[in-house]
Amino acid sequence: MSQNNNFVYVHHVNRRADWRIRPGEENDLLKRDSNSGTGCCDDGSGTTAAAGRKKNYSPASTPVPGKAQGMLYFCATPIGNLGDITRRVLQCLKEADLIAVESVKHSRKLLHYYEIRKPLISYREANREHKGREILARLKAGAKIALITDAGMPSISDPGFPLARLLLAENVPFTVLPGPSAVLTALVHSGYPADR
Questions:
Q1: Which is more confidently placed, 73 or 8?
Q2: Nearest-angstrom CA–CA distance, 108 and 119
Q3: What whole-number distance in Å separates Cα of residue 17 and Cα of residue 170?
Q4: What CA–CA distance (Å, rounded) separates 168 from 16?
Q5: Is 164 within 8 Å of 174 (Cβ atoms)?
């Protein structure tokens, strides 16, 4: 639990969000917790409080001091056939808070095919500096963001590389989810000896 701008912040474990309440109202949460037997808010001291579906409490709109940073996922997308995508990437896209795309129009075809409806943000060469900073700010606020390109692996012939460098400089975590490779596909199909 932390205090900022005359509000008390408690972490909602089940929803993985932070709830903003006024000082003194945390006791009401503890009381409701003991009555309901459910604990979904953790104040960091081992004591839980139930926020449930109470309409009084709204998620904090500003980053909470000490809150864990988010994660950026470089996700490989199909290079031709829409079926050439891993289940791990699909799961990541479904769970992401935001998806950064090279082309909104192009990526919507893939997302619509798999019935994935998530907020999109355009991240391409023309806006990479501005949007890169915006993505960075959201990651520092705890967002889970997936980065996809029109086809293949981000950072290969697209502005994913500058974003990776920015995250490394800012010490923000990211990971790579593998997928189809045009290079390896062409190599195997060519019959060229690749066994050594």
A1: 73
A2: 11
A3: 23
A4: 25
A5: yes
* Residue 138: CB atoms within 10 Å: 19
Phi-psi region of 5 (alpha: psi -120 to 50; beta: other; left: phi over 0): left
What the block records as the tokens of 16 is: 């993985």
In one-letter notation, the amino acid at residue 8 is: V
DSSP-assigned letter for residue 125:
G
List of residues 6+ apart from 168 with CB closer than 8 A: none
Residue 95 has pLDDT above 60, yes or no: yes
Put simply, whether the predicted model's pTM sits higher than 0.85 gets the answer: no
CB contact set of 35 (below 8 Å; sequence gap of 6+): none
What size, in residues, is the chain?
Answer: 196
| Helix, strand and coil in the chain, % to nearest 5 | 35, 20, 45
Query: Looking at the predicted structure, is the pLDDT value of residue 109 above 80?
Result: yes
The token pair at 196 is 């050594």
Res. 142: pLDDT tops 90: yes
* Confidence category of residue 73, pLDDT binned at 50, 70, 90: very high
